[in-house]
Amino acid sequence: MNKRVTQDDIIYFIVTDRFFGRSKRTVDTSDTSIHGGTLDGILEKLDYLIELGVTTIWVTPVYENIQNLDTSEPYHYYWPLNFEQMDGRLLDGTRLPDSVDKRTFGKFVDLCEAAGMKVVLDMVVNHSGYGAQGEFDATWFNIGGSGDIKGQLAGLPDFNHDNPEVLDFFINNIEDWISKGKVTNIRMDTVKHVEPKFWHYFKSQIRGEYPDVCLIGEVLFEGKEDIGKLLQYQNYHDFDSIFDFPLCTALRSTLIYDGSLRYWLARPRLNDEEPLGVLDNDNPLKNGYRNANRLVTLLDNHDLDRRIMSHARTKHSGADAGLDWAIRVTKLCLGALLTLRGIPQIYYGTEVGLEGWKAGDDRDLRRDFPWHVIGDDHHPRQKFRKELEIYEWTRDLISLRKGHTALRYGSTITLWSDDVVYAFLRIATDDVALVIINNGYTRMPNPIQLNLDMSIIPQRVADMIAGGLKHWKTGQALMVQNGKVPLTVDGKTIDIFCSDGSG
After folding, report:
1. How many angstroms separate the CA atoms of 342 and 75, rounded?
2. In 3-state terms, the chain is what percent helix, strand and coil (to 5)?
3. Residue range 307-343, pLDDT digits in tens
4. What are the CA-CA distances from residue 484 to residues 267, 420, 448 (Å)?
5. CA atoms of 403 and 380, how far apart (whole Å)
6. Which of 63, 335, 398, 477 is most buried, by the most CB atoms less than 10 A from its CB?
7. DSSP letters of 32-72?
């Protein structure tokens, strides 16, 4: 088993405390205490994740955290007190040793990998928990910080990585988690708040000794105008991957809130003056990402404004028809996520339409997973219509992606882009997929004619398309007439046509 995250993977992000544990409490979403989700609990629910089809789980930090504050507990475990050991509150003794030694996390990794599941560990180097300065040398912290992105984050004590003692501590600490905790994939928190010198030491020492460790950076720049700042972390700081927040913004702005597809995603290439969409920045020869196919793509997470289903309900409120439209556009977003380039990340509960909002703090974004809707067969129960429909759609899309090299590795070629319609090809060596999105609210009145232009499409690919792509759900054969593909697509719908027998 390749333990490193690759383009073959679908990542499932879990806020451990909110997922499952034998003694976990179910409480109101306004509650900021620790609810009792554990790593043991994740192991107990691996069959659910395997049935869904995800291949990798990303878990929030496991360091020993500070104890209760007056207003909140560190249920998310991003407020470290001691970087050298685990927090005992993340263990319930049912499947893992109760020792807080790093080797216990290594046991967790072993059990996940034995079930065919890779693990990404969330790491923090930027800050300690509130009130934890006394556990470290006073000279280790920034006083006021410097520059636009330094200084305290939400008032958390901010480490100064220009201090060689701080650099040395964290490089050795990470190496210890790799060797004892068997960490092979790291999601690094709050990357843009860490002094750049740290990444030089990381790629010199950690990269040198552990070249197979995958580093995924959280650099929270969300706008398409921010891509120039975002890509430097992949291009210059040697991150394997970063989160594609601009694409997340683009998908939400278009598929939920009806923005122009050609403005946000990809220009139609009619002239050089058109504004670039997010996908137009994928070319490294034009100052784009080093490898856009290695970006981690997402629809929502634990820090953004709200979950994707809550965005959909904001746009489409009310019962019955409003809920139907919300389900429809959520499925459309998932369809785009799992057919576009990148490594898809699903936030726990998104596959069953879990909602959540940021309202002053993040607690509602991190609701408890609704295990009451899941039956013994690891599927939502029939009486939960919304949850079942979104779950089955997500599971089927994951299966489709895993079955087609074009969707995992393929190059992307835009065939059509206007305000409402986006069509593209994904092309691999022996596989091709054609994807078309109608972002309008009604069925196309007339077929759109997609031109298989030989100036951008190799002849063998055109032959594969003409030889018979089939609709992923209905099995309907794709028609090709005089070098053009006529298609009529329903409103707020994604249609996917794939070749047979792909790997």
Report:
1. 30
2. 35, 20, 45
3. 999 999 999 999 999 999 999 999 999 999 999 999 9
4. 20, 20, 9
5. 24
6. 63
7. -S-----HHHHHHTHHHHHHHT--EEEE---EEE----SS-
For the CA atoms of the chain, what is the radius of gyration? Answer: 23
- The upper half-sphere exposure of residue 433, i.e. CA atoms within 13 Å in the direction of its Cβ, equals 31
- The answer to whether the CB of 306 falls within 8 A of the CB of 365 is yes
Q: Are 81 and 66 in contact (CB under 8 A)?
A: yes
Q: What is the pLDDT of residue 502?
A: 53
**Size of the chain, expressed as the number of residues it contains:** 503
Closest CA to 7 of 352, 367, 273, 402: 402
Residue 501 has pLDDT above 70, yes or no: no
Q: CA neighbours within 13 Å on the CB side: how many for 493?
A: 12
Contact 56, 348 (CB under 8 A): no
Say how many Å lie between the first and final Cα of the chain, rounded.
17
The H or E element spanning position 246 is helix 245-251
Contact 373, 352 (CB under 8 A): yes
Give the pLDDT band of residue 148 (cuts 50, 70, 90): very low
- What pLDDT is recorded for position 359? 84
Rounded-to-integer distance, Cα 462 and Cα 455, Å = 11
